[in-house]
Amino acid sequence: MGRDRAPAVVFVPGFMQRGEAWRPVAERLGERYRSVCLDPRGSTFEARLEEILTGTPRGAALVGYSLGARLALHAALHEPDRLAALVLVGGNAGIEDDAARGARRSFDEALAAWMEGRPIDEIVSRWEWSPIFASQSRKLRGAQRAARLSHDPGELASLLRTAGQGVVPPVWHRMGEIACPALAVAGELDRKYADAAARMAKLMPAARVRLIPGTGHAPQLEAPERFATALDEFLDEHLAQGGLVGGDSEPRALGDGQ
User: Fold this and answer.
1) What is the span of the domain harbouring residue 18?
2) Strands 207-212 vs 34-37: parallel, antiparallel or unpaired
3) First and final C-alpha spacing in the chain
4) Given 128, 163, 198, which residue is the final one in a domain?
5) pLDDT tens track for 96-146
6) Is residue 142 assigned to a domain?
């Protein structure tokens, strides 16, 4: 199979990342798959969701991390027949408790307001030392710094206000609508998201959970070789048999207003 006809695997980055963050994994997939590292630029949830749907050919596998996993999940619910497979990394289906969701919304609003009045280097310095990244080495955090510095504070604030966990409604009750094969991945040390991955996998009809040993919230960055192996095994099982049969050869055009 030529590379142009290979099944597509579309990667969606997390908050304050660029598409290049997925490169260490994409490069390990080899020639059997056509890797597409999306670099969404929209500053709202709806804008990014449209970018993902625009950039994902029919019959592709969609892989999202953290905020990207939230968006990938909603993309799958928005167009359930578009995907051949779905991979959610460090994601969950939302905060169900009203009080907890309200508290998270207030936290994100305060953080967004703080971001609007600060230079990007100060924002990045605070973000890269968030407790959720505690398992990442100083070297790994440093490797991500240049991409993080490329963001605009106002756009980051807008994204927090429209795509944060306190704002996006929970969709646990809709997980059964995702009929395509799915893989819910989390770092073994990231207990909160490991539990969420296990729950999501139980609720989706054709899903399984995979924990990456010795890693935290970003297993694809902390252990790209192990993560790529797990992803490759899943794709070989569900996509290599022809995920693009009857699908689009190219991503569809941008919709109005983009």
Assistant:
1) 3-96+170-238
2) unpaired
3) 34
4) 163
5) 999 999 999 999 999 999 999 999 999 999 999 999 999 999 999 999 999
6) yes
> How many structural domains comprise the chain?
2
156-166 pLDDT, tens digit each: 999 999 999 99
What contacts 104, CB < 8 A, 6 or more positions away?
95, 164, 165, 166
HEC assignment per residue over the chain: CCHHHCCEEEEECCCCCCHHHHHHHHHHHHHHCEEEECCCCCCCHHHHHHHHHHHCCCCEEEEEECHHHHHHHHHHHHCCCCEEEEEEECCCCCCCCHHHHHHHHHHHHHHHHHHHCCCHHHHHHHHCCCHHHCCCCHHHHHHHHHHHHCCCHHHHHHHHHHHCCCCCCCCHHHHHHCCCCEEEEEECCCHHHHHHHHHHHHHCCCEEEEEECCCCCCHHHHCHHHHHHHHHHHHHHHCCCCCCCCCCCCCCCCCCCC
d(CA 3, CA 1): 7
Same domain, 157 and 174: no
Q: Are 38 and 10 in contact (CB under 8 A)?
A: yes
**Is 25 within a domain?**
yes
Q: 102 and 190, same structural domain? A: no
Six-digit token pair at 236?
């070989």
Token pair 């959610």 is found at 88
* pTM confidence score: 0.91
Residue 257 within a domain:
no
